[in-house]
TrEMBL record:
The chain crosses the membrane at residues 7-29, 41-62, 293-312. InterPro entries: NAD(P)-bd_dom_sf, Sc_DH/Rdtase_CS, SDR_fam. Pfam families: adh_short. Catalyzes the reduction of all-trans-retinal to all-trans-retinol in the presence of NADPH. GO terms for molecular function: all-trans-retinol dehydrogenase (NADP+) activity. The keyword rRNA processing does not apply. This is Short-chain dehydrogenase/reductase 3. PANTHER family: PKSB, RETINOL DEHYDROGENASE 10. Belongs to the short-chain dehydrogenases/reductases (SDR) family. SUPFAM superfamilies: NAD(P)-binding Rossmann-fold domains (SSF51735). Its main location: membrane. One of its GO terms (cellular component) is membrane. It comes from the Eukaryota.
Length: 339
C-alpha cells in the first residue's frame, strides 16, 4: 500500500493535519510579524481551530467510550482466542500475539505456524455445540480467555440465485452466528471479572453491496449491529465497562480469499498486507481501548456513502466498476478462513 492515497494521508496526519503542526505554524506567523488582524494570521487561526477541533472530537470519542482512566494491558495475565486463526489474518495475529501470551486457535484445520504459546483446537465455530464443547476443554487446559477475536469467515462468490441453501447457511453461520456462539461461552467470565476485550472482524463490504457477494455482505453488515449492541449491553445491562469491544472493517487483504477480484483505481482502493491490519488491532488491545478500525482510508468513505443521494452512490460505484469486481474471482472457499 506504499503507492496509494493512504501513504499520503499518513504523512498529512503527522504534519498538516496534526494539532502540534498547526499551532507551531500559527506561532511562526506571529514571530514573523503577522498581526492577529492580518488575513494570513486569521486564515491560519481558522485552520488551527479546525484541526484542533477534530482532533479533540476524536480524543473525546475514545475517552468517553473507554473511560478517562485507562492503562496499558498487562499481557502476562491474558489468554487470547482467535477463530479462523490457522491462516491469513488470523494466523499472523496468532503468531504475533504468541510472543507474549497464550493464544488459542479455533479452526477446522491445523495452523500454518507452530509456536510454544499457540494451542490449536479443531472446532467448527459455526456450530454452537462444537464451541461449547471446546470451550470446556480450553478452560480446563489454559484457563478462562480474556481476549476474543472473532475472525472466522468464508466467501462463496456466487449470485443470489446460484447460491444453494447450504451455501447461504454456511456463510451466515460462519461469518455471523459464530460470533454469537463464541461470545456466549466466553463473555460471562469477562463480565464477572469486568475485564476483557472482544474484537469483531467485519469488512469494508459491510457498507456496500456487491454482485456475487450477497451472503458475504449481509453477514458482515450484521456484525456491525452485533458489535454496537454488545458494546451498549456491556455498558448498561451488565455494567462491565472494562470489557472493551473493537470493530475492524478492513479492505481487501492479500490472503487469497479474494484472488482475482478487481478494482479500477487501486491507488484509491488498494489491497493490503495482513500486517497493516494486525498492527492497529494489537495497538487497540495494548492500549486497553475499544476502537473502530476502518482501513484503508476509502473504507471511511464507504461508511459515508449512504448519506449521499442514490444517483451519486451509483455513479461512484460504476466509476470503480463495482458491478464487475467479482467477475474474475478465483479465490477458494475455505471455511473459517479470515478476510
Amino acid at each position: 500500500m506504499i503507492f496509494s492515497i493512504d501513504f499520503f494521508i499518513r504523512i498529512l496526519n503527522v504534519s498538516l493535519f496534526h494539532p502540534s503542526f498547526a499551532i507551531l505554524f500559527l506561532v511562526v506567523l506571529y514571530v514573523q510579524g503577522y498581526g492577529i488582524s492580518e488575513p494570513e494570521f486569521l486564515f491560519s487561526s481558522v485552520y488551527t481551530f479546525i484541526v484542533c477541533f477534530f482532533w479533540l472530537l476524536s480524543y473525546l470519542s475514545i475517552k468517553s467510550r473507554n473511560g478517562w482512566k485507562t492503562r496499558h494491558l498487562d499481557w502476562d495475565d491474558e489468554i487470547v482466542v482467535i477463530t479462523g486463526g490457522s491462516s491469513g489474518l488470523g494466523s499472523l495475529l496468532a503468531e504475533t500475539l504468541a510472543r507474549n501470551v497464550t493464544v488459542i486457535i479455533l479452526d477446522i484445520k491445523p495452523p500454518e505456524v507452530e509456536h510454544d504459546n499457540i494451542i490449536y483446537f479443531e472446532c467448527d465455530v459455526s456450530k454452537l455445540e462444537d464451541v461449547q464443547k471446546v470451550a470446556k476443554e480450553i478452560i480446563d487446559e489454559a484457563g478462562h480467555p480474556t481476549i476474543l477475536i472473532n475472525n472466522a469467515g468464508i466467501v462463496q462468490g456466487k449470485t443470489i440465485l446460484e447460491l444453494s441453501e447450504k451455501e447461504i447457511l454456511n456463510t451466515l453461520n460462519t461469518n455471523l452466528l459464530a460470533s454469537f456462539w463464541t461470545t456466549k461461552v466466553f463473555l460471562p467470565e469477562m463480565i464477572k471479572k469486568n475485564h476483557g476485550h472482544i474484537v469483531t472482524i467485519a469488512s469494508a463490504l459491510t457498507f456496500i453491496g456487491m454482485p456475487q457477494l450477497a451472503d458475504y455482505c449481509s453477514s458482515k453488515a450484521a456484525l456491525i449491529g452485533f458489535h454496537e449492541t454488545l458494546r451498549r449491553e456491556l455498558d448498561n445491562q451488565y455494567n462491565a465497562k472494562n470489557v472493551h469491544t473493537t470493530l475492524v472493517c478492513p479492505g481487501k487483504l492479500k490472503t487469497g480469499m479474494f484472488d482475482g477480484a478487481t478494482v479500477r483505481f487501486p491507488f484509491l482502493t488498494p489491497s493490503m498486507a495482513t500486517l497493516e491490519v494486525v498492527k492497529p488491532i494489537i495497538t487497540a488491545l495494548d492500549k486497553n481501548q475499544g476502537q473502530d478500525i476502518f482501513i484503508p482510508f476509502y473504507v471511511n468513505i464507504l461508511a459515508l456513502l449512504r448519506f449521499l443521494p442514490l444517483f451519486v452512490q451509483d455513479l461512484l460505484y460504476k466509476m470503480n466498476d463495482g458491478d464487475h469486481s467479482m467477475s474474475k474471482w478465483k479465490g477458494k472457499y475455505n471455511k473459517n478462513k479470515d478476510q
